[in-house]
Write a structure and sequence with these properties.
The chain is about 15% helix and about 20% strand. It is built from five helices and six strands. Strands 3-4-5-6 form a four-stranded antiparallel sheet. The longest helix is centred in the middle third of the chain and has 10 residues.
């Protein structure tokens, strides 16, 4: 787990994290931390949070790891936009689902690469429908691999019944397009990497 500060202090650009160092040597959550320098590194510790439950004793107190090894600081995406320069590919997928209650078809359109829009004759109608098809619950976005310059994600979510979300999961291919990451492809199955024809420039 990692967090970034919003002020301009010494650590504003360096991620604070819950790491092996924190979990095994942190004085705040251990009755007797090991003596001397902590022998454990600054790698991130995965944290699982179950819907409807809370997790305690997750302390973001390690500000001394190598921030280059951490996920980048998220950029804010606001207004009738789905993507922006500097956004992460995962953010675009998450934003797409957030827009399912926005009533903002232009923002939904902004989620997709021009090539995907051009391939789908009913794209405009689909964007309008998606903008009020939510909400999305229990959204989980999992990076599977990177192929031809694209990040490929498995996405699971609970959605009201609509013709766009059929079944428990879909697969999203995301890559750079016109100044920000956008969705190039959505499907109910994932093509073998050796057979993938979608390229993200």
């Amino acid at each position: 787990m990692i967090a970034y500060r919003n002020d301009s202090g010494d650590f504003a650009l360096t991620g604070g994290a819950y790491t092996q160092n924190t979990a095994k040597c942190g004085a705040y959550n251990l009755p007797t931390p090991p003596p001397g320098p902590c022998p454990y590194d600054h790698s991130l510790v995965p944290v699982t949070v179950t819907a409807g439950q809370t997790v305690s004793s997750i302390l973001i107190i390690d500000w001394f790891g190598k921030s280059g090894n951490y996920p980048p600081r998220p950029v804010a995406i606001t207004g009738s936009r789905c993507t922006i320069t500097g956004a992460a590919t995962r953010q675009v997928v998450e934003r797409y689902f957030a827009l399912s209650t926005s009533n903002d078809p232009p923002a939904v359109t902004d989620c997709f690469a021009q090539s995907w829009r051009d391939r789908n004759q009913q794209f405009a109608a689909g964007s309008e429908l998606w903008s009020h098809s939510g909400p999305a619950n229990n959204l989980a976005v999992t990076l599977l691999d990177a192929v031809n310059g694209c990040d490929r994600f498995r996405v699971t979510a609970q959605m009201p019944n609509n013709r766009f979300w059929t079944g428990a999961q879909q697969f999203f291919t995301v890559g750079p397009d016109a100044g920000g990451p956008r969705i190039y492809e959505v499907g109910t199955a994932l093509v073998n990497p050796s057979l993938a024809t979608t390229h993200c420039p």
